[in-house]
Amino acid sequence: MPSGIGKTVRGLSDKAIAWLFIGPTILLLLAINIFPLIWTIYLSFTNYRANRPNAEVKYVGLDWYHRILGDADVWAAMQTTAHFVIWTIIIETVLGFGLAWLIDKKFRGHALWTTVILIPMMLSPAVVGNFWTFLYQPQSGLFNYAISFVTGIDPSSFQMLGSVRLSPWAIVIVDAWMWTPYVMLICLAGLRSIPDYIYEAAEVDRASPWRQFWSITLPMALPFIMLAVLFRGIENFKMFDMVNLLTGGGPGSTTEVVSITLKRQAFESWRTGYSSALAIILFVTVFGLANIYVKALNRVKQR
């Protein structure tokens, strides 16, 4: 075999061939991800309106950013978003880890129950939104009748989606129902990664099950739990489809999260420059918080 035939093909080195294959993919990813971001940054400094594409585009500097940071409605939407993020993460983490801990016991039929638990996660958000909208109906929905059966309250005396007090919790319940299985899968992977010999050594030392849980199970599964919190936190900060399907941001602006505000500014008021600035602020916020959280996650993993 001639020398160097393994390293060259028609005069190209292995490195050049590798770049020849991955180059188009990288360019496509850059075009899909980087260009829209750069274009959005540009629009955030202009008065551009998508419904007036032929109008003169003027540079407005940081005006949109000043207005957004001083807008009480935007801060109210931020608080509503924080409410959803915090409560959904707490509920999904507790329930997800609890389910993972039970499934990890490998009881009879655990594979079947795992599949059943994963069903909500497999459904489309549109299907879930319409399904729960029907369940929340005060006259014919099963949710009100279930609450009535447990508490004795008249099922037609309250509305989950029409109440200022209950509508935020209605969305939290739906999101937890749909995405708790996702957290369960990540936590289950963490529990399955713990070597059995550690528990065997703890039993030799006569450690109680409670002590094993707090000293072995929880610390070793903590990086996976934190990873699940990171994923769900990022997704819930961008929550749009479920809120839009269930309440549309109402009643009033009770459930208007930042993504709903962004959508209304961009596609109802057609304030493209303003909405672009808001999108950049949201991106920087999520990116900054995620970066801080990842550093904390790395510290936990190094312990």
Write the layout of secondary structure elements.
Blueprint: E1 8-9, E2 12-13, H1 14-43, H2 63-69, H3 72-103, H4 110-122, H5 125-135, H6 142-151, H7 167-192, H8 196-204, H9 209-237, H10 241-246, H11 258-267, H12 272-302
Antiparallel strand pairs: 1-2
Helix pairs in contact: 1-12, 3-7, 3-9, 4-7, 7-9, 9-12, 11-12
- Portion in helices: over 70%
Q: Based on DSSP secondary structure assignment, what is the total number of beta strands?
A: 2
Low-confidence stretches: 3-7
List the secondary-structure elements in sequence, H or E: EEHHHHHHHHHHHH
Q: Structural class, from secondary structure content?
A: mainly alpha
Which percent range describes the beta-strand content?
A: under 5%
For the residues shown, what is the average pLDDT?
89
Structural Rg: 25 Å
Spatial separation of the terminal alpha carbons: 52 Å
Number of separate helices: 12
What's the arrangement of strands in the largest beta sheet? 1-2
**Approximate shape:** globular
User: Sheet bearing the most strands, described?
Assistant: 2 strands, antiparallel
